[in-house]
Amino acid sequence: MRHNGLILQAYLGKAGLKTLAIERRAIAGGGLSTLEDPRGFLHNTHAFFLRAITAMRWYADLELERHGARLIEPELNVALITRDGRALEWWTDIERTIASFADFSQRDAQTLRRWHDEFVPIVTQILAPEAHSPPLPPAERRALLSRTSAGRRLLAVSALSPLEFVEREFEHPTIKAGLLFFNGLREVDLRLPGFGHHIAALLASPAKAQMSRGGSAALARALEAAVRATGGEIKLAAEPRRIVVEGGRAVGVETADGELIRANHLVASSLNPQQTFLDLLDAALVPRDMRERARRFQYNLLAPLFALHLDLAEPPRYRASAERGELARAFMVILGLDHVDQFGDIVRHHEAGTIPPTVMWGACPTLFDPSQAPEGRHTAFMWEKLPYRVHGDAENWERLREEHGRAMLKLWQQHAPNLADAVIDSFTRTPLDIARDLPNMRDGDLLVGAFANDQVGYHRPFAGAGNYRTHLPGLYLCGASSHPGGNITGLPAYNAAQVILADLGLAADWMPAPIAAQLAAV
Ligand SMILES: Cc1cc2nc3c(=O)[nH]c(=O)nc-3n(C[C@H](O)[C@H](O)[C@H](O)COP(=O)(O)OP(=O)(O)OC[C@H]3O[C@@H](n4cnc5c(N)ncnc54)[C@H](O)[C@@H]3O)c2cc1C
């Protein structure tokens, strides 16, 4: 049961429904996963940088702090360290970020301030409420946004691609690279019109990267506790074989070992559309055009990650921190990225299934949470975007993993020479490991679906299955393949809970006002 599944379960339990979740693995949490090695080092093998979790409404509604969650938000949130030892820094305090931009370009620093100030109201009044609501049909959304100047501005900026936005607004190649990197982190195709506002929104958003104390899995444990507090049950090491439909309505799930679990009200799936519509439903129960749309659901080419994890005797000490002492406490560190032109190269390598020159990012979690390693010891990791089908076949990762891990460590050591003697142990995780571990992340796509192919907003995952409802009464979607998409946001579940409770005629005091009313009031 994935974080989205757990969040939906907790909301339904809060509304008085009896709930049961089925999880394939022996532990719940999906992308919120932490491994402990025999020496007591913790490694977060999936999500680590958790975006503004404490600002999420479900975090408060489900009382996750009472259930043990603690999030840490380091002040120097992100640092891009260049080859020549300079650093572009994003702070939780926008003034410090602007000052860092000014070290590279005074003009870009002013541009940052202008976009920040203009987009703060757009983020708070439009984009954040939209992410927290079932999406509107595109024509209705456009009509509502066209009524206000903030809405019209948003529509105009979105018409650009992120690449056009950055090329038009900023001048310094490192700043452009840093901004696009952030957008690329969210896996939007940088060349795609319709997403130009993402960068402006990012500049204006108060939402910064956080980490979960005790490891990402500690947040999953808090979610589990929230579920159990409502009487919800979680069945581990159980795989669904089919969704049971009677009289045209989803009425339960049959597990792989033959158990029939009946549901009085609904079945919700947080799996991908192929799993839900093609694997778990008999073909006769899904109209041919729905099957075709599920089959054509696309995954992100640029999402798969390769990871290098280290057990350390001491934290990485970056050469650049001799000049800039603050880098010793940098949270996310980006290495190997100096120039905006590298993006074209990375995309070409992904299309060809080859390995680009390394651009990587990661953290040393124990700088902020010593509980993630034995006393005095540290952990650190770096991620790199690499193709799933490397040289045409994902299985090739088995023979390439060690060599590639060494290449990453070499680049890391160039920036942090002390790593030459500090590494106690290491391991790698490939895009193939990800897809094997969490099969919903098909082709290693950790966002479980591209933001292209009309898979955005009202039509995510595809027309006819948007808004968390399917063609079958009683069957709902609540995972990253639905709006607003992947990452640890919990928002597909938060929104699915609104739709389900409305369909069941149940009221809940946490429910936001309908998004159409919120947009009309901007
Ligand atoms: C290496 C890596 C790094 C990442 N880093 C970040 C990050 O820093 N920040 C961030 O926000 N996000 C990150 N993500 C992405 C994030 O983890 C996912 O987008 C998110 O977990 C998706 O949430 P979900 O609830 O839809 O599904 P998931 O969390 O993927 O959970 C799906 C669940 O379904 C189960 N499942 C799959 N198939 C079946 C089946 N057939 N039967 C039963 N159960 C099944 C799985 O075991 C799993 O528990 C990362 C992912 C990876 C792989």
The main sheet comes to: 7 strands, mixed
What bound compounds does this protein have? flavin-adenine dinucleotide
Q: Kindly state the mean pLDDT as a whole number?
A: 95
- What is the global morphology? globular
Topology of this structure?
Layout: H1 3-14, E1 20-22, E2 34-36, E3 42-44, E4 50-51, H2 57-61, E5 71-72, E6 76-81, E7 87-91, H3 94-104, H4 106-131, H5 138-146, H6 149-158, H7 162-169, H8 173-185, H9 197-204, E8 209-212, H10 216-229, E9 233-235, E10 240-246, E11 249-255, E12 260-262, E13 267-269, H11 273-279, H12 288-295, E14 305-312, E15 332-335, H13 342-352, E16 360-363, E17 378-385, H14 397-415, H15 419-422, E18 423-429, H16 431-437, E19 475-477, H17 491-503, H18 515-520
Parallel strand pairs: 1-9, 6-15, 13-19
Antiparallel strand pairs: 2-3, 4-8, 5-8, 6-7, 10-11, 11-12, 14-17, 14-18, 15-16, 16-17
Helix pairs in contact: 1-10, 1-17, 3-4, 4-9, 5-6, 7-8, 11-12
The structure holds flavin-adenine dinucleotide.
